[in-house]
Design brief:
The complex is a heterodimer. By secondary structure, chain A is mainly β. Chain A has strands at residues 4-7, 10-13, 19-25, 31-38, 42-51, 54-57, 64-66, 76-78, 87-95, 98-101, 105-109. The chains are: A mainly beta, B mainly beta.
């Protein structure tokens, strides 16, 4: 099993650009989520999904969209990037009480 | 309000010394608590869950409901324990049955010096 994979590992955007962070898992987990990690702020939940076709907002959803068309994939879209979205983004899937994290995407918005 | 507090941003100890990473929570229900660890250049991973009462890599954590704490302890720290440690509280989603979301502390960076 590859576990949770994320692409790209690094990305630099200009303000106003859009992009999609990819996340996939091959463990058939129903629950998936996106976090951002910022210094001094810990991990903050952006969006989550409890199964294909079901998504909901976390703590900091503004500026991000998600969809869940399959169990495996949970992409995160930035519609119009802002410098405040400079962060490290983690995708995670969950089975019972254990979360499995991806390696992260380091995003810089100039 | 549901909250997890890790009062120390940075904890520095010498190799062989005992280490305790503090975690306090605020939750009115029955808590599920976890410790996650992120070693340098590695992904975040589960270290301990309170319900299993296990010892992993020499670390233990006991849930103290009276003090609403879940401190992580190790009697003799090793250099390879240097990492970022996050305490997390599992709380139920309103619309997802048995699924729970995690509320995270801000993390404590542990540095074990030789």
């Amino acid at each position: 099993n590859a576990g949770v994979t994320q692409t790209p590992k690094f990305q630099v955007l200009k303000t106003g650009q859009s992009m999609t962070l990819q996340c996939a898992q091959d463990m058939n987990h129903e629950y998936m989520s996106w976090y951002r990690q910022d210094p001094g702020m810990g991990l903050r939940l952006i969006h989550y999904s409890v199964g294909a076709g079901i998504t909901d907002q976390g703590e900091v959803p503004n500026g991000y969209n998600v969809s869940r068309s399959t169990t495996e994939d949970f992409p995160l879209r930035l519609l119009s990037a802002a410098p405040s979205q400079t962060s490290v983004y983690f995708c995670a899937s969950r089975y019972t009480d254990t979360q499995y994290f991806g390696p992260g995407t380091r995003l810089t918005v100039l | 309000a549901q909250r997890v507090t890790q009062p120390e941003k940075l904890l520095s100890v010498f190799k062989g010394a005992p280490v305790e990473l503090k975690c306090n929570y605020s939750y009115s229900g029955s808590p599920e608590l976890f410790w996650y660890v992120q070693y340098s250049r590695q992904r975040l991973q589960l270290l301990l869950r309170h319900i299993s009462r296990e010892s992993i890599k020499g670390f233990t954590a006991d849930l103290n409901k009276g003090e609403t704490s879940f401190h992580l302890k190790k009697p003799f720290a090793q250099e390879e324990d240097s990492a970022m440690y996050y305490c997390a509280l599992g709380t139920p989603f309103s619309n997802a049955g048995n699924n729970r979301k995690l509320i995270w502390g801000l993390g404590t960076s542990l540095a074990v010096n030789p």
